Amino acid sequence: MAIWLGIAAAMVVVAGAITLVANAAGSAAPSGIAVRSASGQPAARILSGSPDAITADLARDLFTSAPAVVVADDGSHDLAAAAAIAGRLHAPVIMVHGPQPTAASIGPARAAIAALHPGVVLAVGVTAAALKADLPATKVVSKSSALPHIAAVSADRHLVVLIHRGESTVDAAVTATAEVAGVRVITASSYDPQTQPAVIKALAAARPVHVIAVGAGFGSTAELTARVSVAETGMQLPGGGQLLFPMRKFVALYGNPTTPALGALGQQDLTASIARARAVAGQYSTLSRVPVVPAFEIIATIAQGSPGRSGGFTYETKPAALLPWVKAATAAGMYVILDLQPGRDNFLAQARLYRSLLRRPNVGLALDPEWKLQPRQLPLHQIGSVHISEVNSVVRWLAHLTAQYRLPQKLLELHQFRLSMIDGESRLDTSHSDLAIVINMDGQGAPVTKAQTWAAIVSAAPKGVYFGWKDFYVKDKPMLDPRRTVRRSPRPVLISYQ
User: Fold this and answer.
1) Whole-model pTM above 0.85?
2) What ranges do the domains of the chain cover?
3) Chain segment 322-379, per-residue pLDDT in tens
4) What fold is seen in the domain 249-497?
5) Strand 120-124 and strand 314-316: pairing?
6) Rounded CA gap, 10 and 218, in Å?
7) CA 437, CA 428: separation in Å to the nearest integer?
């Protein structure tokens, strides 16, 4: 996946080698208009600066020649008219600054016009005489009727222009020029295509390979490359889009499907568990400004009192045994979190056991340091802990897996109710945009005690993380109702029930 960028409010996304040609043979239209082939062009390009520089660069990027060019004042009320005329006459739009352009202000436009070799320039909102003075070798007119008829360019299905709605006066000119070049236009309300379900669908249909983005808000070339690469897969998270938070809230049943004593998840069969998860999540629908998504938090590896097959004092559920639950949850529009209680084993080694499930877009991972044991330690004899280096090894591995398969952002949850559970927590690696890291305060007890634990966990957490809260049906005395559960600062993005 390669990308070609630009600036100020639009993004031209191209799939396949960008071959902007008037017909399948690649020849110019009979009128002399010719679009530029992308071969030899950089995979990603950013157009930045003033409207005149942006529109001039875009015209030169998309065309090798044009019989006519529309020149418009970037501050004129006639921009919409200029764009409409350009679309009707199949001519690119280039802006200049002010109705009386000077030799200094017309520089970008002059270079672009010279590169396109137009036979005539139409001045819209610009004094034709002033424009003519700066373009002495070019015919300048003020009436569209003086422009020649120009044949339309055949649409290239692989090209898309993504316009950021209402960002700049350059929108109309960029849209007109892109459409004249046969490029499909998509309007977006955000600079990140991964946040918008409709834009993701459109990019998936276009299958972009090269991108020209017009708009500094789209980020760096590398950032946009990664975002479009994922968006074009068309995969979306439950609730829509490809970024987890703060666009949604998860409400999860916690436990193991075969062990009722471990939590609410295992207290009924699969079908009933889905119904229960939906019912619990439904209690939060009126308390949230974002979609509330039901979830399963499945204890995949369970700390146990005997060494077990691995000798690590942990029982590792086979991925095949969890697959029916993952598939059913997926079909029900739910998210799934695989929880690890490693015993004396390593978190990363256990995470790798579930690679096949974690390759699914709606499956995340949770690490529970309470059950991380040191040599000669046994479950239930102490509260476990993990060094941050081991956590970061999972962070890097999971981020790489997510990027490798171009998956939507993936959840990594860290359970914590004592600061000692994560040794070196301040060095948590939060630099991977492929992951959303949530620290889940899973302490139990009276509301006052839990509130104190929450405050300690939140204050000690590194920047760049979100927070979750766990309610215990039996061990909380009393358990908070949904309204009191969400009455936290910051608001929890994940609420689980055990």
Assistant:
1) yes
2) 10-231, 249-497
3) 999 999 999 999 999 999 999 999 999 999 999 999 999 999 999 999 999 988 888 8
4) TIM Barrel (3.20.20)
5) unpaired
6) 9
7) 10
